[in-house]
Amino acid sequence: MDRTHAEHDTSQAASTDGAQAPCLIITDDDIHLFAQGSWNRSWEKMGAHPDTQNGVDGWRFCVWAPEVAGVSVVGDFNDWDVEANKLDELPTGGLWQGFVPGLSQGDLYKYVIETDDGKLLYKADPYGFWSEKIPGTASRLMDIEGYEWGDKAWMDARHASDHMKKPLNIYEVHLGSWRRHGDEPQGEPDENGNYPGPMDPFPAQRGEYYTYDDLSVELVDYVREMGYTHIEVLPVMEHPFDGSWGYQGTGYYAVTARYGEPKQFMHFIDACHQAGIGVILDWVPGGFCADAQGLATFNGHMLYEREIHPNWGTHKFDFGRGEVRSFLISNVLFWIEQFHADGIRMDGVSSMLYLNFGVDDPAQKKFNKYGDEGDLDAIDFIRKVNNTVGQTFPDVMMMAEESTAWPLVTYPAEDGGLAFHYKWDMGWMNDTLHYMQTDFPWRPGNHTLLTFSIMYAFSENFILPLSHDEVVHGKCSLIGRMPGDWWRQFAGLRTLAFYQMTHPGAKLNFMGNEIAQFIEWRYYESIQWFLTEEYETHAKHQQFIKALNHLYTAEPALYELAYSQDGFEWIDPNDNEQSIISFVRHGENPDDDLVVLINFDPAFYETFQMGVPREGDYLEIFNSDDVRFGGSGKHNEKKLSSHPEPKHGFENSIELLVPPLAGIVLKRQGPSSYKPPKIKKTTARKTTAKKATATKRTSAKKTEDGTASSASKTTKTASAKKATATSKSTGTKKTKAASTTSTSTAKTVKTPKKASGAASTAARTRKASPKSSPASAKEND
Predict the structure, then answer these.
(1) Considering only CA atoms, which of 409, 435, 442, 445 is closest in space to residue 503?
(2) The model's pTM
(3) Which of 713, 707, 637 is nearest to 675 (CA)?
């Protein structure tokens, strides 16, 4: 409050009520900044706050409602009497305020707006900090000050670190359905005793919600044990309909009352931080629901909104209006400051950026003054939000759910960007899931769906999302997309998760992905945790995800350069015939580098030659085919020593076993133990043979000096040389065996040159941190 008090020392108060507490006085500066779109802490005075006037305790109210006949506050305290507590309009700004004595925290209230045509609108408080539990629609009086935080160590470490150099592995959670108490249907049955089910428009809730306090223990403990670094929470702002998952809200400043009070939610975030877990909040500035108690036509006309969304029926904010910008920018800062949020994911960015998002009729399309479809007000608003957060809380992450090819999303605003830190990579998600649901015989023809993402992987700072949107509305669960029998489905899901974790970029997975739930997500019931208790395959998959998460945080090469081309190098992106890709993930320290190979086919290879970036002994440190995870147990048990035989454009290569439908990670342990074979020397017993012997020894010396250094390998590589002469590439024959037998058949492996043009050099260096300019990187394009 110090900043607010400082304002009062230099600003003239617009309210003349001398008995009003100084921190709640609306000043001329406040009104000016509010209209300008720059009153960034408006929640401190707008809405309802405890106050004392003339020695009487009560609550002070302030609401924005221009061009109306009158405003009053109603609630249980005055029997909802419209005439009992009328508010006074300030001379300018359309603000109405007043003091009501004798109120208590938790009291229900609404504003009654008398419109210019005489209608009475009963509205929840746009700045209310808490709400009545659904189906109720009133606001509740709530003082959110005074929570004692215990996360100083976390906040200090956050401020001192660069989040783009740290692991970012997000567990996306819908708090209402992560876990519930019981599974009994809630509400009343129909006349036949039945409850609405999954195929009904409004299924019955099953079980009772966990509270914020419950989640502070069970969810926090689970996420910490599983090894995720952050929790992303689907919108917790108050919303009337469970089926909107929180994305169609009415109370932008109110934590939903479904799970408890605001300070309980603070405690949840506090508990996360004390456990070493960051918290990201979903934020929805794109639009709000049309419910009568909300922001929709707040004064009888469009006030907060400019138009109705053509697809969703939601009301789109008017980003060109200063008071709306003040409302929203204050809101994002409110969640960061008051609730210690570590990141904000801005939902529906694409729907904000385009004037014609969702408009199919060409006759209805609109264009800006430059002749394109960009919404200039929305673009300016987004930049202002990100810049304001960056200036006020530079250690907080800003993320965009942007599903199009809008350029420069994670570039600084001064370089023409939108100034986000991260963008969801929807292209990677769509291509990868399309590939993974393709049956194995057809995967070679779709191989580029795996490799294309590297062509643009470093053009933005990407998060790889396997989110809630991919397991709803008939899309199937992730494991439901996998082809093949039971074993292949689980192996395929492990391979998908492994590919996501080793691919450049941050990671995001929705709850339930980690236990391979077969049904789609249902917001009205708990995740099916019984699967891990009753079925070994699901339990082993959960253990696999846990091990994979811990691998990610333990290996700097997987996150230190996740947004830079310096952190990735192809070994072989083009082995489409065998559905295999291989690459290197680089860390800042070369000793941290990892070699990754992924086989997307159910065949395994007893002997497979692969180039490596450095000579050395390599050890398999992770294998998704481990029997602990439900795999077949095909391992490289011994160290793999490189030998000086060129492959894939590298000077050294190794021979390894490739497990079926699985990925492996290799790490260099030190110099190669490989020793070139020595030529066996013979000694002549007879004097007459000494000359000939000397000649043979001379020949052997030449061989050891390098003219025939591979002579000892003649037998081993004969078939490879034959394959080289008859194939398009310089490959060698490798054994391919069905995963269920020990017999093998030969199959040529394509071995292109090191990918300097196909994908690797086409990917551009990261240009988009708000801390850096893209100019130097553009020169490399």
Answers:
(1) 435
(2) 0.86
(3) 713
Contact 350, 287 (CB under 8 A): no
CA distance 330 to 349: 18
Q: Cα separation of 430 and 450, whole Å?
A: 10
CA distance 89 to 261: 31
- % of the chain at pLDDT higher than 90: 79
Compute the C-alpha angle 630/632/636, nearest 5°.
115
Residue closest to 35 by CA, chosen among 318, 381, 323, 328: 323
Q: Give the separation between CA 223 and CA 280, rounded to whole angstroms.
A: 14
Nearest residue to 293 (alpha-carbon basis) of 83, 109, 129, 142:
109
**Cβ(424)–Cβ(401) below 8 Å:** yes
Helix, strand, or coil here: 188?
coil
Positions marked catalytic: 347, 401
Bridge partners (DSSP) listed for residue 24: none
Neighbouring-strand partners of residue 576: none
In this structure, what token pair is assigned to residue 379? 């673009």
| Residue 135, preceding peptide bond in cis (omega within 30° of 0) | yes
DSSP type of residue 95: E
Strands (E), 343-461: 343-346, 397-400, 422-424
Distance CA 282, CA 532 (A): 29
Q: What pairs with residue 75 in β-bridges?
A: 109
What phi and psi values does residue 246 have, to the nearest 5 degrees? 100, -5
- Whether omega for the bond prior to residue 573 falls within 30 degrees of 0, making it cis, is no
| CA terminus-to-terminus distance, the chain | 49
User: What integer is the mean pLDDT of 123-133?
Assistant: 97
* Assigned token pair, 62: 């302030």
Sole residue written with tokens 């609401």: 63
Are residues 419 and 402 in contact, defined by beta-carbon separation less than 8 angstroms? no
- Please list, in sequence order, all residues whose beta carbon lies within 8 angstroms of the beta carbon of residue 772, skipping any fewer than 6 positions away: 412
For residue 432, the one-letter residue type is T
What's 313's DSSP letter?
-
Burial class of residue 681 in the structure, from the number of CB atoms within 10 Å of its CB (0-12 exposed, 13-18 middle, 19+ buried): exposed
Residue type present at position 392: T
Residues contacting 16, CB < 8 A, separation 6+: none
385 pLDDT band, cuts 50/70/90, is very high
User: What is the distance between the alpha carbons of residues 524 and 266, in angstroms, rounded to a whole number?
Assistant: 24
Angle ∠(658,661,666) on CA atoms, nearest 5:
40
The whole-angstrom distance between residue 289's C-alpha and the CA centroid of its chain comes to 24
Instruction: Express each pLDDT in 478-532 by its tens digit.
Output: 999 999 999 999 999 999 999 999 999 999 999 999 999 999 999 999 999 999 9
User: Using one digit for the tens of pLDDT, what is the confidence trace for 528-575?
Assistant: 999 999 999 999 999 999 999 999 999 999 999 999 999 999 999 999
Strand 594-599 relative to strand 343-346, pairing: unpaired
| Residues ≥6 apart with Cβ < 8 Å to 314 | 248, 286, 287, 288, 289, 290, 308
| Cβ atoms within 10 Å, residue 706 | 9
Q: Cα separation of 652 and 644, whole Å?
A: 5
